Amino acid sequence: MNELLELSFEISKTLAHSGYPADAPAFAVTWGQIAEAIAQTVLSHNLPTDTLTEETKVILADTIRRDLLEIDPLNWREIVLDRVMTCRAINPALWEPDYEPDEGPLVEQYENATRLGDDESYWVDGGESAGFFDE
User: Fold this and answer.
1) Across all residues in the chain, what is the average pLDDT?
2) Which of 6, 27, 35, 111 is 20 to 30 A from 47 (CA-CA)?
């Protein structure tokens, strides 16, 4: 509980310095309540708190503010939960690695095999199905 209060205070302080005072209403809730919900989400889902940089907190607040205006503000806790859990900086495990569509471990293995002239070892059956040994 102490960690929750400390983290929510730290988030509130950062938001206040960035123009989001804790007692000012965001829409139907205050930024202090949103900061507390962010902290509660981060801690209850065991997300790393060191990824909450000042920039990440402000970007998250901007995203939440925009969504509160566009989506039903009565669901503000769900909006906060969704934005925290889908934030790439806070929850990187949710996102896939940055592969190009034509790249990946198998493509690289194939490219290395063909570049070395070792095409047969790429195939499970040693290349027989590829017609390398046809007469």
Assistant:
1) 79
2) 27
Give the separation between CA 84 and CA 60, rounded to whole angstroms: 7
Could you give the C-alpha distances from 127 to 60, 108, 117, 120, 130, in angstroms and in order? 52, 18, 12, 4, 5
Measured over the CA atoms of residue 41, residue 45, residue 49 and residue 54, the dihedral's sign is negative
- Number of C-beta neighbours around residue 12 at 10 A: 24
- Beta bridge partner(s), residue 30: 25
> Is the backbone of residue 127 left (phi > 0), alpha (psi -120 to 50) or beta?
left
Q: Is the pLDDT score of 72 beyond 60?
A: yes
**Is the entire prediction scored with pTM above 0.85?**
no
Mean pLDDT to the nearest integer, 3-21: 90
